[in-house]
Specification:
With about 280 residues, the protein is α/β, with parallel strands linked by helices. The protein is built from 11 helices and 10 strands. It has a 7-stranded parallel beta sheet with strand order 1-10-9-6-2-3-5. A 3-stranded antiparallel beta sheet has the order 4-8-7. Helix 1 crosses helix 2. Helix 7 links the parallel strand 9 and strand 10. The structure holds 2-amino-2-deoxy-6-O-phosphono-alpha-D-glucopyranose. 2-amino-2-deoxy-6-O-phosphono-alpha-D-glucopyranose (GLP) binds next to helix 2 and helix 5.
């Protein structure tokens, strides 16, 4: 795991976008794992901008989202299908047939989960998985007690998660009780993971995820087991980290320019990942 701390949320989002851009240029048919949540909004805005300004090409890219609410149709403005189209897919040259989210309206939810897993495998597995983190440390919707080897399945949302996501619904009680989510094990199989967390409200969970003991109660701790995982933070989200100085030393010893020096940084977990670099 490597930890990269940027001065503010904008530069952190830009850092994540730089890594995604690099991965996409190394592998134009990137299998890109996508996340939702407010933190991702500036990432998608920047990717759309880069497509418009610099012709960043998504035409061969294939995507798999982490999760979707059970019971929300794709055209429901609160669904993740809708979020992704509005925020990202409709703004770039991605082929919508290559974009995938679990179907929260499926009659047979278990079969839908199994189908999603198979589809990821059929596409060669996820190259780069973008991740946010919930206030309770969830990845996707892997709520406390999610096994590290769990696969795509239906999860009951915790009260913390329902409260966190309530502002995105017209009324708090409209937040669905369940969602389909990739499992922790599914996420850990991605070749690279890139987690972005910003803001003071994430500081408490970020330190547990990065420096705390492995626990199924905080699924983001599972990323400590991943061989090529980069955590991109702003200073607020990083403010509780105890080993901050060590992370700076690692960046310096790898001769990686500190984000303060030129505003951009390519995490080695992404740039030096042979699985990506081998497939130009
Ligand atoms: C939802 C998503 C998670 C995401 C989280 C963070 O719960 N299912 O994948 O990490 O939101 O949200 P935010 O970025 O709004 O804090």
């Amino acid at each position: 795991m490597e930890v990269i701390i940027h001065p503010n949320a904008e530069l952190a989002a830009q850092g994540a976008v730089d890594s995604i851009t690099w991965a996409l240029s190394a592998k134009p048919d990137l299998v890109f794992g996508l996340a939702t949540g407010c933190t991702m909004e500036s990432v998608y805005d920047r990717l759309v901008q880069k497509h418009q300004d610099e012709a960043l090409d998504f035409s061969r890219c294939r995507t798999f989202n982490l999760d979707e609410y059970v019971g929300l149709a794709a055209d429901d403005p609160c669904s993740y299908h809708y979020f992704m189209r509005q925020r990202f897919f409709d703004g770039v040259n991605i082929d919508l047939r290559n974009t995938h989210l679990p179907d929260g309206m499926a009659d047979d939810l278990e079969a839908e989960c199994a189908k999603y897993e198979k589809l990821i495998v059929a596409n060669g597995g996820i190259d780069l998985q973008l991740l946010g983190i919930g206030l309770n440390g969830h990845l996707g919707f892997n709520e406390p007690l999610s096994a590290f080897r769990s696969r795509t399945r239906v999860q009951t949302l915790s009260r913390v998660t329902q409260a966190q996501n309530a502002s995105l619904f017209p009324k708090p009680r409209q937040v669905p009780r369940r969602a389909i989510t990739m499992g922790v094990g599914t996420i850990l199989e991605a070749r690279c993971c890139l987690l972005l967390a910003t803001g003071l409200e994430k500081a408490e969970i970020v330190v547990k995820a990065i420096e705390g003991p492995l626990t199924a109660m905080i699924t983001a701790t599972a990323l400590q087991l991943h061989p090529t995982c980069t955590i991109v933070l702003d200073e607020e989200a990083a403010s509780n980290l105890r080993e901050n100085d060590h992370y700076q030393r690692i960046m310096a010893s790898q001769k990686i320019p500190h984000p303060n020096e030129n505003g951009s940084h390519q995490p080695p977990a992404v740039t030096q990942n042979p699985l990506l670099a081998d497939k130009p």
